[in-house]
Design brief:
507 residues; 3 domains; Rossmann fold; alpha/beta; 15 helices; GMP Synthetase, Chain A, domain 3
Length: 507
């Protein structure tokens, strides 16, 4: 094993030292943080987490609002060799119970308002401590950090040492922990910085959440590995985006960001004049959005393709043709192939199963060695579950997604999880959940339900029950009652029929 230090923070730290006095980020209300500020606070937080009981390799579960301090918490975990386990703020107590029990964190960091609900869950999962951090950067974690020294070293990490643990549900409804190493994140970020030509002259408008790959690893990684800066927004607000775009050079977003911009009359070519790169990912970008955006601004959106398990796999070129409906060629160092169900390569332009291999690909599922072995080929390719094709120019198109996953507003929604919940409700015989077109979110969740007795259930009953137990982005936007679900000759529910039947339900 190489003795080279692959700790991602080591490579960020080179820019922290080089740009110590330069601005790393500025919040929407004008609070500025330099690279040196981030280095100092991450050192204090690393010392605080260590003193609270964390050691290298331990998981630190984090469910907090986006803030400069939450960014420093991520940096602290990298720096100290702790495994960062971010959680969506929308997750309910019932959902958190599974994640904490499975991840077995030594520490949990949560919003002060959720501490009472989370503490017993954390205790049951064996966590040593629960500390708090709110959206303004206040809480018991910052109190501990204030009493710690900023002079915390960098724990050396090697090839298979974990940097992060993220969860992605499967079609069985059981979330799987995805083990991402420092090497995975470092090599993928290096490839993106080079491919997108990030430099210290760039300023990123960061409006993404930081509990998943796009906002956490791609956006922050490209900035910190290049010495760039950020306008740091707590979330996506179209008025704030239009306000701050003229000072920025890059915007990363999901397709919803771009459709919302196009809905604003004062989003003009002049507003976008300083931007050199608009990036879209996390969900398919409609060709009409691509065309309308170019017509309005003169800019072609750069679409790329990634997964939680692999970070980024492919990207349309910074210089060269950006083909609408494609995600571009594979990134340098990444191999993508399209195979049939027997594992044989298909011809150029034919659709098949998309597999990927490279230093960006995760090392396996947490505590699931059999599932890991199942999802990798003998020659080391990961079976993404996506259907794709590659054209004669090497551009990849994603023509179908893993099983029946729904992507709503850039967030993954796994139908089986919602179906299992709805099926357990009194009066429900069975259900099927699908995604249908939604003007704002790309796709919206629709539940098709077969009741035990027709006429005895109301749509609001199911929606309210889901709201009480599921994250808001998983809650069906509509519930339809039917006498029976369409099935094929093998008795499998035909979700393609349901998607077509209800495709205009949310329009």
């Amino acid at each position: 094993m190489s003795t080279k230090d692959l700790n991602l923070y080591t490579h960020f730290n080179a820019q922290i030292l080089r740009h110590a006095d330069d601005e790393l980020l500025c919040t929407s209300d004008g609070r500025s943080y330099s690279y040196a500020d981030a280095g100092e606070l991450s050192g204090r937080m690393a010392g605080a987490l260590r003193d609270l009981g964390a050691t290298p390799g331990d998981r630190v579960s984090v469910q907090v609002e986006k803030s400069p301090e939450s960014l420093c918490l991520y940096l602290a975990c990298l720096r100290a060799g702790f495994v960062f386990h971010p959680l969506n703020m929308a997750y309910t107590a019932g959902e958190l119970e599974y994640f904490l029990d499975n991840a077995e964190p030594v520490l949990v960091v949560c919003d002060p308002g959720n501490e009472a609900a989370i503490r017993p869950i954390a205790d049951a999962a064996g966590a040593k401590n629960v500390v708090t951090l709110d959206g303004d950067g206040n809480g018991t974690l910052t109190e501990h950090a204030a009493a710690s020294s900023p002079d915390f070293g960098i724990v050396k990490r090697q090839h298979d040492d974990l940097a992060a643990l993220l969860y992605s549900s499967g079609t069985t409804g059981v979330p799987k922990g995805i083990m991402l190493t420092h090497a995975n994140l470092l090599r993928n970020t290096e490839a993106l910085v080079n491919a997108w030509e990030f430099s210290s002259q760039d300023r990123l408008l960061h409006a993404l959440p930081i509990f998943h790959v796009h906002g956490l690893f791609v956006a922050i990684g490209c900035v910190m590995l290049s010495g760039a800066s950020m306008r740091w927004l707590p979330g996506y607000n179209v008025r704030d985006v239009i306000r701050f775009l003229p000072e920025c050079s890059v915007l990363m977003g999901v397709p919803t960001y771009y459709t919302r911009l196009l809905a604003e009359n004062d989003f003009t070519k002049e507003v976008a004049a300083n931007i050199r790169l608009f990036v879209s990912g996390s969900a398919p970008l409609l060709e009409e959005t691509f065309v309308e955006f170019e017509t309005r601004t003169g800019h072609c959106i750069l679409e790329r393709y990634g997964m939680t398990e692999t970070n980024m796999n492919a990207s349309n070129p910074l210089k060269g043709e950006r083909k609408p409906g494609t995600v571009g060629p594979p990134l340098p160092g990444v191999e993508i192939r399209i195979v049939d169900d027997e594992g044989r390569n298909v011809a150029v332009g034919e659709t098949g199963n998309l597999q990927v291999r490279g230093p960006n690909v995760f090392i396996g599922y947490w505590k699931l060695p059999d599932k890991t072995a199942e999802d990798f080929t003998e020659d080391g390719f990961f079976n993404t579950g996506d259907k794709g094709r590659i054209d004669e120019d090497g551009y990849v198109s994603i023509v179908g997604r893993a099983k029946d996953m729904v992507i709503s507003g850039g967030l993954n929604v796994y139908p089986k999880e919602i179906e299992l919940f709805i099926d357990d409700l009194p009066g429900v015989r069975e259900s099927a959940v699908v995604g249908v077109p939604h003007a704002d979110f790309g796709e919206g969740v629709v539940a098709v339900v077969v009741p035990e007795n027709a006429g005895e259930m109301r749509e609001a009953d199911i929606v309210d029950a889901c709201k009480a137990e599921l994250a808001n982005f998983k809650v069906p936007k509509r519930v339809v009652f039917v006498d029976e679900l369409p099935r094929n000759t093998m008795a499998k529910v035909q979700k393609n029929v349901l998607r077509e039947t209800y495709r205009d339900l949310l329009s």
